[in-house]
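Please predict the structure of the following assembly.
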Amino acid sequence: MARHTFARTTLAALSAVTLLALGACSSEPPSSDGGDGAEGGGDELISVGFSQVGAESGWRSANTMSIKDALTEENGFELSFSDAQQKQENQISAIRNYIAQGVDVIAFSPVVETGWDAVLEEAKGAGIPVVLTDRAVETTVEDAYVSFIGSDFVEEGARSGEWAVEQYDGEGYKVVELQGTTGSAPAIDRQQGFADAIEGSDLEVIDSQTGDFTRDGGKKVMEGFLTAHDDIDLVFAHNDDMGLGAVEAIEAAGMTPGEDIKIITIDGVKDGMAALAEGKFNYIVECNPLLGPDLAEVIQKTVAGEDVEERIVTQDEAFDQEGAKEALPDRQY
Ligand code: AHR
């Protein structure tokens, strides 16, 4: 696998690493006050600007918690965190602020795949390394980021489709798809993976619309699907929250989710796993949101001038109803 080393050339960066190492030997927690260092010294912390997509789903809340738990002062970080409310322009302006502040590292989870070239070029020009978490970008900027940490979304869609074929091929199932945010990597990749996996079977996607990864969006789109089609057998939802919205719409229409209409989702957050254990969902492909520890390690290595993996793929499981009953009591998120 290709590796990246981000060469830190400034004296400030080198001294930050040295002080970080010294700080690790101290019993005092480091301070982030940027003051004179009398209580541990502000310089020893690695300053990180993180631009989060939003708070659209249970997955996102778990992901935010994981990042905040990993990038603490005790662990040697000074974190500036911003929530973009699912808007690319908010992310771009947050990243520009981090560049202006001169943080040591910028990390972000890009709401959509394209449109990042200018701001990535600006970060590169300022000599600030960028780490992507969760979602990928398409960019023409060379060496735009040092590492991308997250799941393989095509694989998640494919595993969903493969299970659907295994269970229902031969029954002429009509499928509706609740897509994630238009233009986002998980929406594009999960749709592709699922479509490829069901090709050659007699499952047919008869409608597909975005529910923007929210419970409310999933409910509204599902209500529209139920009005437009009276022959839906299976919902493929790009995340648990939209699947939970679909459950509400199906129940309101007098049907039983998981039986009259089967539901496959992606994520595996607690509410989704509970719905699966209760028989309202039929299958979940996990998307692990706990990216904080990997992000912390990548940032530390980058600042220290060490090699980091260009692509870190998170390992995901998959659950049927019995699997959910077993896993639910120990679920962390
Ligand atoms: O990018 C990951 C996706 O974003 C999750 O599957 C979804 O729940 C979230 O909103």
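Residues 153-287 form a domain with the Rossmann fold fold (CATH 3.40.50.2300). Residues 283 and 320 are 5 Å apart (CA to CA).
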